[in-house]
Write a structure and sequence with these properties.
By secondary structure, the protein is an all-alpha fold. The chain has one domain: Tetratricopeptide repeat domain (Serine Threonine Protein Phosphatase 5, Tetratricopeptide repeat, Alpha Horseshoe). The chain is 75% helix and 0% strand. The chain has eight helices and no strands. α3 packs antiparallel against α4. The mean pLDDT is 93.
């Protein structure tokens, strides 16, 4: 059996730590956010989506929560839901369009025929000026 790297061991520790905390405090936002991120880094996209859906319920007006939800949907190729979540993030004030242009979690969404036109219009309107 191959040895796990230090990074893998640390990620496993991080997941166990946050999961234990979440067991005691199920709606603790400051645990849910890094746990969802850790699930995504581990490739556990379904679990990451579950966390992002909980966060969207708990913090319905937070644009970053909706952006992360769009990323989770994109990673799972649930593109219609991803586009809806990304639209909601922008409606709520998400404005880091440079990050949106290059975020690998949104690759599936950026390549979706349905999302491409909306994204091109959005990104064209928010091109950095030189």
């Amino acid at each position: 059996m191959p040895r796990r790297s230090k990074a893998q061991e640390l990620l496993d520790f991080e997941l166990a730590f946050y999961e234990k905390l979440l067991g005691a405090y199920p709606d603790f936002i400051d645990v849910l956010i890094p746990l969802g991120d850790a699930y995504t880094r581990r490739g556990l996209h379904e679990k990451g989506l579950e966390i992002d859906l909980r966060l969207a319920h708990l913090r319905a007006h937070d644009p970053l929560i909706w952006y992360n939800l769009a990323c989770s949907y994109s990673l799972l190729s649930r593109l219609d839901e991803g586009l809806d979540a990304l639209r909601r993030a922008v409606e709520l004030g998400y404005s880091d369009f440079e990050h949106l242009r290059r975020d690998p979690d949104l690759t599936n969404l950026r390549h979706s025929t349905k999302a491409r036109e909306w994204l091109q219009g959005l990104l064209a309107a928010h091109r950095p000026t030189v």
